[in-house]
Structures are given as structure tokens and as C-alpha cells.
Write a structure and sequence with these properties.
The protein is built from 13 helices and seven strands. The protein is an alpha+beta fold and about 350 residues long. The strands form two sheets. The chain has a five-stranded mixed barrel. Helix 4 packs across helix 6. The chain is flat and about 130 Å long. The chain starts with a helix and ends with a helix. The relative contact order is 0.06. The N terminus is likely disordered.
Length: about 350
């Protein structure tokens, strides 16, 4: 029974040392191991200890603070009893023993902040860092003021399945988009166009404000400095509202002379004006313009809209006058009734024979 129930390492140890007294002690260690893992899973999955996502190297992990673990275990002695049954001591010492046990089992590992200084626009470090690195040395000591990384993962939630099915449906929708109804195409087109115009407009406003502030004050101030940052979460993209670029020492960059700033702005303005005024009719710019025109023409062709270019009303009236047609917006006059029988009788029979 022991051979089939016990794990491999237990059978090897029993074979080397003999079965007397080894099986019971080893089975006790196995039960303790299971209890420690169950406690660790509860601490992580049930959010008994506050954990936050972070990046360590190229992996996404979850981290927690050592003092949060100690505080929870001090207030919940039953959790300590699960990992260290029948062990006596002060609540703080027992909590630290549980932390050392988690380190010894490899369930957690000690980690530290990758960046020791606050980000641009902040005066204090965040409660939980976004990026951490593992401390290779001294993993046997449990330090309350340090961060620790979970080496276990949360079980998948139902939202994972929902997102997976939604991704599959999105792929099918993109694939079948050419067969979608016209209203769907128009909705997707205008939604995408609105988002694109909003983003480009926001970037343009940032550039204009930065240029104005830099020209008149010489300071490198940005509106929404985290808008294009790839190392911040989505919740921090629109904060802070304004930020100034600083060097490694945390000091603002020196302002260039006013003459150089005005010269740089004038050079950029002249370059943009020349590129807009003297754009060639052939080439990449013309290709973009023709592609845009074809897209709008396609949408107009499949709808009741009519594209208006120039003075369309005047052009339509002029064309109608040349062809003796009523101006746009007026109904066509009624044609008089004509008796075709009299016209046919007057035609010679030879014409009918030629037609036949």
C-alpha cells in the first residue's frame, strides 16, 4: 500500500533508510505540504492578501507585500494552524515562520522594484510597482518590508471563456465583413473614422501645446504625457494632465535661447506649408487621395446620399438649361398625348419592308 500511495521521493527515502518510522513521518510531511499549498491558493485566489499584477522579466506575475501577509496571519490564527499545526509561539513569529515555509517550498520568491524612483509627474512611489525583478540571493529570509512574487497561478475564471468565444466571433465578423449589410459597413466605417480623428486630433493638440509652451517659455511640457507610453496601464494613460520632461537627476532640461526656438518653429512651419502647397499630383500622396475618394464613392453608390463637390447646384442648373430640362427640384412637365396611328399611315410601305 505504501509503495503505490506514496510519491517517488518517499519510496526512495524509505528504501534507503528502511520503512520503520519513515513512512509515518514522510506521510505527515506530505499532508503538511498539501495544507501549505491549499493555504497559499486561498491567500491568492480568495484575495486574503492583497495581490497586484506585475511584470518580472518577460512574464506577467502577481506580487504582494510581506507585511500584508504577516498582518493577515496575525489576525487569523486558524490560517497559521493549517500550515503549522500544534506549533507554539507569538503571532508575529508564527506568521514569519509561515512566510519562511512558503519561501522554502518555492511557492513564493522575494522580489524588488525595478525602478527605485517615482515616475514623471509623481512625487512618491506607487504602492505596488509595475515591474519587479527576482532577488537571487538570500531567498531563505522572510522580510516584511519586501515584495514577494507568487509562483502559483489563479485558476481560470468564467470570463476567460467569455473572452475566448468573443475573440472567435470577432475573427468571424472581420472575415465576413465584405458580406455584411450596408448599414453595418457604414457604422463600422464612421466609428473607426471617429476614433481615428479623435486620436489624431488629440495628438495634434498635444503637439501644438508643446510647441507653444516650448517657444515662449523654453520648458518641455506635455499635455497628457502618458498618452503614448507603453509602460503604464490603461487606467493611467490620462493622468497626470500635464508633465514636464526631466533628466536622470530629476531636473528639467535647460531652455534653448529664444532665437533658436523661434528659428526652429519657423523652419517647421515653412516645411509644412511647402509640403502642403507643392504636393505632386503623382506619387504616394496622390494614391492616398484617390483611395479615400474611392472609399467615399463606394459608400455613396450604395446609399441614397449624393456627393457634393464644388457648386453642385449651379452646375446642375446649367446642365439642365443646356438640355432643356427643368432645374433641380422641379418635376418634369407632362408629355402631350400623341396619336401614333396617323404618323404610321403617312409612312410609305417601303420603309416597313426595309425594317423587316
Amino acid at each position: 500500500v505504501v509503495y503505490f500511495v506514496c510519491p517517488t521521493w518517499l519510496r526512495e527515502e524509505a528504501a534507503l533508510r528502511g520503512c520503520e518510522g519513515v513512512v509515518a513521518a514522510a506521510m505527515g510531511d506530505q499532508v503538511e505540504k498539501d495544507a501549505v499549498h491549499e493555504l497559499a491558493e486561498d491567500l491568492l485566489c480568495k484575495n486574503w492578501v492583497e495581490s497586484r499584477p506585475a511584470i518580472m522579466g518577460r512574464q506577467r506575475v502577481e506580487i504582494f507585500r510581506g507585511k500584508d501577509l504577516v498582518a493577515y496571519l496575525v489576525d487569523h490564527s486558524e490560517a497559521v494552524e493549517r500550515a503549522l499545526p500544534k506549533q507554539k509561539g507569538s503571532p508575529n513569529d508564527l506568521a514569519r515562520d509561515v512566510g519562511r515555509l512558503l519561501l522554502k517550498r518555492g511557492i513564493i520568491c522575494r522580489s524588488e522594484r525595478l525602478f527605485k524612483r517615482p515616475k514623471l509627474g509623481r512625487k512618491k512611489l506607487t504602492k505596488f510597482p509595475r515591474k519587479v525583478f527576482a532577488v537571487e540571493n538570500d531567498q531563505s529570509k522572510f522580510i516584511e518590508g519586501s515584495f514577494y512574487t507568487w509562483n502559483i497561478e489563479r485558476p481560470p475564471t468564467p470570463w476567460v471563456k467569455v473572452v475566448s468565444y468573443a475573440a472567435v466571433l470577432l475573427v468571424f465578423a472581420v472575415t465576413l465583413f465584405p458580406l455584411a449589410p450596408y448599414q453595418v459597413k457604414v457604422g463600422v466605417f464612421y466609428t473607426s473614422l471617429t476614433m481615428l480623428v479623435f486620436l489624431l486630433g488629440l495628438i495634434g493638440v498635444r503637439a501644438v501645446l508643446h510647441a507653444l509652451v516650448w517657444t515662449f517659455t523654453g520648458k518641455y511640457v506635455w499635455f497628457l504625457p502618458n498618452l503614448l507610453a507603453d509602460n503604464v496601464p490603461l487606467t493611467e494613460i490620462f493622468s497626470p494632465m500635464f508633465g514636464e520632461d526631466k533628466n536622470k537627476r530629476g531636473k528639467p532640461y535647460p531652455a534653448p535661447p529664444l532665437a533658436k526656438r523661434l528659428g526652429a518653429v519657423a523652419a517647421v512651419a515653412l516645411t509644412v506649408f511647402a509640403a502642403y502647397k507643392y504636393t505632386p499630383e503623382k506619387g504616394y500622396g496622390a494614391k492616398i487621395r484617390s483611395t479615400t475618394d474611392e472609399m467615399f464613392d463606394y459608400l455613396v453608390e450604395h446609399s441614397d446620399l449624393r456627393r457634393i463637390t464644388g457648386n453642385s447646384t449651379g452646375d446642375a442648373e446649367a446642365a439642365a438649361a443646356e438640355e432643356d430640362l427643368p432645374p433641380p427640384g422641379e418635376e418634369m412637365p407632362e408629355m402631350p398625348d400623341i396619336d401614333l396611328s396617323d404618323i404610321v399611315e403617312d409612312l410609305p410601305e417601303e420603309d416597313f419592308e426595309d425594317e423587316l
